[in-house]
Amino acid sequence: MKKLDRKQISNLLFLVVMGVLLFTPLGTPVKVFIHRLIAFSPSVESVEETERLSDYEWILEDMSGQRAYFGDMKGQVVVINFWATWCPPCIAEMPSLQELYTEYGDRATFMFVSQEDKATIKKFLVKRGFDLPVYNPLSKIPEKLYSQSVPATYIIDRDGGIRVSKVGVADWNSDTVRSLLDDLINAR
User: Fold this and answer.
1) Any idea where the Thioredoxin domain is (predicted)?
2) Cβ atoms within 10 A of the Cβ of 47, count?
3) Structural domains of the chain ordered from first start
4) The pTM is what?
């Protein structure tokens, strides 16, 4: 049997390290770090280019088991984030969403939607020190808010206009998003 030389050993070691980082939970912190590095502020749609949300028929349930009806959100500024505890881009953007929620949670409606079981979600929130309002969907998600990928985040104005529609990681605590929320909240 042929003995491995230094180059072959280093290549093998590199492949093992990359495999661990990419395909095991041990790599999650590295993936989160990389996603935070590439997170930029999302782009905002102009009022003229805004798609309108017409379907508000959506039922959700919060972590305490109380039902929430999306139709009750008509006329409000709403931030909706679809996420999962196992998703590195979701984990990467969560701190900026928490900061945004802490600043604007009393003036806009925030909904963090996950299809995971409540115990998993609660454990994740406690471990990371988040106090976000999380919901499980109980009925079909409105078509204009449906994404096959997470994270997916939408900012909806009082008239049902989808002003931000972003799939993938973003920096939500940016001047751009804050300015948009200020404008939408103050528009009457």
Assistant:
1) 24-186
2) 10
3) 6-35 (no CATH), 39-186 (3.40.30.10)
4) 0.83
